[in-house]
Design a protein that fits this description.
The chain has a single domain, classed as Alpha-Beta Barrel (TIM Barrel), CATH 3.20.20.80. Strand 10 and strand 11 form a beta hairpin. It is about 35% helix and about 20% strand. It is globular, with a radius of gyration of 21 Å. The protein has a nine-stranded parallel β-sheet with strand order 7-4-3-18-15-14-13-12-8. Strands 9-11-10 form a three-stranded antiparallel β-sheet, with no helix packed on it. The chain has a two-stranded antiparallel ribbon with strand order 1-2. With about 400 residues, the chain is α/β, with parallel strands linked by helices.
């Protein structure tokens, strides 16, 4: 359900404005699209979401599977789904922006490329049916597989590490970064995000910790030339050099500002959500200075991935002075790990972390739907997990 100029279901664009953002030129769009729908939650503490991944799951295989998950989530008093719409260099919705760059309009996984399915539209309809906020999740952020059409067609878009390599291993997939310092990469992501929010009537879109760059990357010719030109530092910096970290982090902040301004011009009131790792780890390792994004008003929601296997470690992150300083400046939530396929988290730990987050005034988003609702830790059954969720969420969050 995506559109560009000239498509039958095109964006009804009134005017195109050029705005300078940082050192690049960004495209801002003004449209007659209605304002974004408001979030259904009345306060940050009432956020009860779950990330919906296609990995280790059959949820994307059919509309019936998607509908069953949405109904179960609502019955368990969850109030938000964060379904993946961008993963491994592909979209789970038809995208003219992707087609423009030689990639499939929609992923061929799960039979999507051979039918009339549009999972993004289906999620929005299911949210309306069950009273759930649908927050599309651009999961892979700046990462794409090295053999993806985007990487193959645009080698000049790729970042490189300090040894000159453009690839790294991402859970068994040879992966590369699209370089957010490159103006064409910025334009691609802006077009992708604007296309989505213009087409789909959602309250929020989310990028997670993959909207980042490993601190060992950024050594492509384009980025190094920009760094030397802007700083006067001719020496090749080390990955952890303070000035080099700060410069790359500032460039990522500029990029986030561009995305934020573009989507809000395209769909008034739409929110930008991010889900980073805790700070300062996110800054030192992935050049993500997300507290600055909040302070500058660039993001409306932050769900910090506090994936800790002890209550002491979890409590330490929730009591971080960084989070305390950002109270009231954005909706703050906590990402709670319910497990992954090889390592399910006992439901008792999920319950205790949920309770602590709520007691400190934070909402929660669980990773991910299968580990929350179906995978079991030793000594558990699926029904035991569901009973525990019913006990920890005995009633719906207060309606606004």
């Amino acid at each position: 359900m995506t559109a560009t100029f000239g498509s039958p279901r095109g964006w009804r664009v009134v005017v195109r404005l050029l705005a300078v953002v940082g050192s690049g030129v960004a495209t801002a769009w003004a449209t007659d699209a209605p304002a974004a729908r408001p979030r259904r939650i009345a306060s940050a503490a009432e956020l009860r979401g779950v990330w919906v991944s296609d990995v280790d799951s059959e949820v994307m295989h059919s509309r019936a599977n998607m509908a069953a998950l949405a109904e179960q989530a609502a019955d368990l008093h969850l109030n938000a789904l964060y379904p993946v719409v961008w993963s491994q260099g592909e979209t789970f919705y038809p995208s003219d922006v992707m087609a423009k760059h030689g990639a499939p309009r929609i992923s061929n996984r799960y039979g999507l490329g051979t039918g009339d399915r549009d999972p993004a539209a289906d999620w929005v309809a299911l949210g309306d049916r069950h009273g759930l906020d649908i927050v599309p999740w651009f999961e892979w952020g700046l990462k794409v597989p090295a053999d993806s059409p985007l990487a193959q067609r645009h080698p000049e878009w790729l970042s490189r590490d300090d040894s000159g390599r453009s690839t790294f291993d991402q859970d068994g997939t040879t992966t590369t970064y699209l370089n957010f310092v490159h103006p064409d990469v910025q334009q691609f992501y802006e077009d992708l995000a604007v296309e989505f929010v213009t087409r789909y009537h959602v309250p929020t879109i989310q990028f997670d910790d993959h909207l980042s760059l490993k601190n060992t990357f950024g050594y492509d010719d384009h980025t190094l030339a920009r760094y030397r030109e802007e700083t006067g530092n001719a020496a090749r910096p080390a990955p952890t050099d303070a000035d080099w970290l700060a410069w790359r982090a500032a460039k990522l902040t500029d990029f986030v500002a561009r995305l934020s301004r573009a989507i809000k011009a395209a769909r008034p009131g739409v929110e930008l959500s991010v889900s980073p790792n805790p700070y300062p780890w996110s800054y030192k390792n992935y050049v993500q200075d997300w507290p600055a994004w909040v302070e500058q008003g660039l993001v409306d929601e932050v769900v910090v991935q506090v994936y800790r296997d002890t209550m002491k470690g979890f409590a330490g992150e929730l009591r971080s002075p960084v989070l305390a300083k950002l109270e009231g400046k954005a909706r703050l939530g906590i990402g709670v790990l319910a497990g992954q396929k090889p390592r399910p988290v006992p439901i008792g730990m999920v319950r205790d972390q949920t309770a602590m987050a709520h007691d400190l005034g934070y909402g929660v988003v669980y990773f991910f739907q299968e580990s929350l609702l179906r995978f079991t830790a030793p000594g558990e059954t699926v029904e035991m997990r569901l009973d525990a969720i019913r006990a920890m969420l005995p009633a719906a969050a207060t309606a606004p």
